[in-house]
Amino acid sequence: MSHISRHDPFSFDGVPDLFQGLFRPMRSAGASEGQAASIRIDVTENDAAYTVKAEMPGVAKQDIDVKIDGNLVAIAAKVERDAELKEGERVLRRERYSGSVSRSFTLAADVDEAQASASYNDGVLTLVLPKKAAGASRRLEIH
Hints:
The protein has 1 helix and 7 strands; from the N terminus they run H-E-E-E-E-E-E-E. By secondary structure, it is mainly beta. It has a domain at 36-82 and 96-130: Immunoglobulin-like, CATH 2.60.40.790.
């Protein structure tokens, strides 16, 4: 009976410890370094409003921008990391993201922008987005 197994050409199995450092940058270049951070969200709703919770750790409150246009919600932020090195230090690996992140999504109903509210606490942005009341329909009289 034959045994079939998969071979990963980038695996470190069988590579002596001395040479693993040479191949590590090739393996991780697309995995973490230079990869844009993303905003993860949870959206819940009740009869009156939507509640959005967005994870944005390490972002200053004044660097967050939220825009609402009808049922479209856009969240953007500027993420800054302190890159100052002390005398004699050098960077061995940098995985923490610096730059801009954004996320936009649509909701099933339009949002009442005037009544919407936002708060930011412990790295979580919370948006309370009241649903816009449906306009009363009226019948047009034809003359």
